[in-house]
Amino acid sequence: MPGLLSCRANLETLMASLISQTYLQSLAGGALIGLASALYLLLDGRVAGVSGILSGSLRASDENQSRNIAFVLGLVLGPVLYRLGFGAWPVVHIGANLRLLALAGLFVGFGTCLGCGCTSGHGVCGLARLSPRSIDAVVTFLIAGIITVASMNALGVA
Fold it and tell me: Which parts of the chain have pLDDT scores under 70?
């Protein structure tokens, strides 16, 4: 049994060192998002569009409300699972002020309604299915993001 515990400790140390490298965190996160989206589509027959799932979890009339709530709870429990696996909370740093974040959230919400979906639905699932509507939406997201960053840099807003 001590050999098994030593092996597990070595594996945990290795995983913590690999995950501490930013590019590997991004790669692992992207792979997990892709896997989860593919499984959601294969097992439930639905596209994993987070904005639609979140809004569906808030509508009592939605026939998929319990599934939507379970999906959202899974998103919220992700950092808890990270803590259990790595012994520390994921490091998150947000440098913007609260008013700017609230304004950005309103713009994202408006864009989500206007584009009939968000980056998870269009960018992850829609592009993988070669959906023309999703391709248009993602190009629009990218252009809007580039314009926003360029404008904020020009105005000195951070």
Answer: 1-9, 11, 14-22, 158
